[in-house]
Design goal:
Elements: E1 3-11, H1 14-30, E2 34-38, E3 55-60, H2 63-71, H3 76-85, E4 86-94
Antiparallel strand pairs: 1-3, 1-4, 2-3
Amino acid sequence: MPAYVIVDTKIEDPVAYEDYKAQARPIAESYGGVYRARGGDMDVVESDLWTPHRLVIVEFPSMEKAQAFLSCPEYAPVAKIRHGAAKCSLTIIDGV
């Protein structure tokens, strides 16, 4: 069953965040990740609980692959770039 990593990002350092994006994508792809949305226009229809800033959605073949990507040693230094460049909320959700 596919799983999706969904990240809401408020970018604070655009230059560093570009570096993060360049490094993160090939690592995600090596775990079977396929980017389904990466920023772009949004139409926030309801926001009682949450108002997103910039959404990224990456589909993985399974929850285990998504978790493996996020915890792999190759991604750890890249995640530090993201943590320094942006505030984020990140979740993994099972697909159907």
